[in-house]
Amino acid sequence: MAEKYYISTAIAYTSSKPHIGNTYEAVLADAIARFKRLKGYDVYFQTGTDEHGIKIEEKAKEASISPKDYVDKIYLEIKNTWDLMNVSYDRFVRTTDSNHVGVVQHIFKKMYDQGDIYKGEYKGLYCTPCESFWTKSQLVDGKCPDCSREVSEQVEEAYFFRLSKYQDRLEKYIASHDDFIYPESRKNEMINNFIKPGLEDLCVSRTSVKWGIPVDFDPNHVVYVWLDALTNYITNIGYDVDNESFEFKKRWPADLHLVGKDIIRFHSIYWPCFLWSLGLELPKKIFGHPWLLMNSDKMSKSKGNVLYASSLVEQFGVDAIRYYLLHEIPFNSDGNITYDLIIERINSDLANVLGNLVQRTISMGNKYFAGKITNSKVSEDIDLAFIGSINNLEDVVTNKMDQLHVSDAITEIFNVLRRSNKYIDDTEPWVLAKSEDNKERLQTVLYNLLESIRICGVLLEPFLPDTSKEILSQINISDVSLEYVDNNIYNLCQPQPLFKRIDKIS
Ligand SMILES: [Zn+2]
């Protein structure tokens, strides 16, 4: 039976339309999910929207509509954006969904009944935009450590979760599970900045907020948004407090929670303690990915430097933007996006390296053999290393993907594509074509190139799904095996350009 793989994105907050930086996470998760499917895993990929909280209450008020109408509208924009980007989620979840709401209430009650949640009074420093209470020691220059805005002192009756009870267990768990928080730099940040200074009990209800899940046994309170949001990973696969479904038992624990580096704290500190309180296993890995910057600056509406997937896709196409997002953002540091960089990548990598190789090879196949290529097996030494690199590619790419080095995985595929172009330069098919004696050698050369194109085409599917399909259809091959075979029969179609070169937009 296929091994299961459960991957999630963080659920996107429905306060405003997602910009390309928010979209990056869904595309990154999609590439990982698609790769796992290609490798034969039984993948479950969940994404969705986080729809409660005071920020939404305020936005809806500004727009003079109900919070539900407001989130319905933004939810659709987010879902449409994910669909536009070819994000192959298995389930798109919403925290306003009635099943989720009911299970969150059961979870809150269970934690209360067993003493993990108790009623008290909260005095604290609160950051409204982040909906987070902070302790003095967590502030940076007296301001919110997440958004650098002013915090204000607030008092309210509230329920608390006994986070402090789990301090030792969490510290030991993180120390003994190297893979849990990823990358390493984030793990150290969590331990040193948040866990070592001491975990304080967490306020998990609000009386000042109306737009949230009510605590059913004390309806003046709504459940704190993070307790509501984090549990989406279990409520939507059939978890309930005294009734775990077959699906839940099959899928949980999640294999990977992919989240922005700014919210890794909630996932690596609160979430484990909530799960322990419910007697559940922890997710295997939490990956805090870096951000996408615009001209080296954080995107924000107020700065007016926000790019949206819809307009980028209209200008450049889905796969060009997927390529950019997946290839240009390093694993461990922020990436940058500008129009000039997008155009440069399209022209140099997608049009020159990939597009040219496919078009040149198919054109030569049509010209010299009327599109019918089999392997006449007239090999030369130069073929060996080339075929070796083709045969190695799956392992090399898998290795990078296992480490979540998605950008490097793409680079490896493009290295083989570059090598294929070099193989054309070295073997000079147009010279071979001049003599009838070299016809068989010429056929083997083209055959080797088509094998490279086929394997790269299959391996590109997780990253550039439409392009992958187009490449395989142009060489008329449905075989998805990832090894060089010497007896394929190619019936080539007319080549169509995969990517057009783009002139600079001035
Ligand atoms: Zn803040």
Q: Would you mind describing this structure in some detail?
A:
- It is a single chain.
- The protein has helices at residues 20-38, 54-62, 67-84, 98-113, 167-176, 184-195, 225-230, 232-235, 246-251, 264-277, 309-316, 318-328, 339-369, 381-402, 406-427, 429-432, 439-459, 465-474, and strands spanning 4-9, 12-13, 42-50, 91-94, 117-127, 132-134, 152-161, 181-182, 202-203, 205-206, 222-223, 256-260, 286-289, 292-294, 297-298, 335-337, 372-373, 490-491.
- The strands form five sheets. Strands 1, 2, 3, 4, 8, 12 and 13 form a seven-stranded parallel sheet that branches. A four-stranded antiparallel sheet has the order 6-5-7-9, covered by helices on one side.
- It has a domain at 338-491: Isoleucyl-tRNA Synthetase, Domain 1 (Orthogonal Bundle).
- It starts with a strand and ends in a 15-residue tail after the last strand.
- The model has no long low-confidence stretch (mean pLDDT 94).
- Helices cover 48% and strands 15% of the residues.
- Helix 6 (184-195) crosses helix 10 and helix 14 (381-402) packs parallel to helix 17 (439-459).
- The chain has 18 helices and 18 strands.
- The chain is of the alpha/beta class and 506 residues long.
- Strand 2, helix 1 (20-38) and strand 3 form a beta-alpha-beta unit.
- The longest helix has 31 residues, at 339-369.
- Zinc ion is lined by residues 127, 129-130, 144, 146-147, 149.
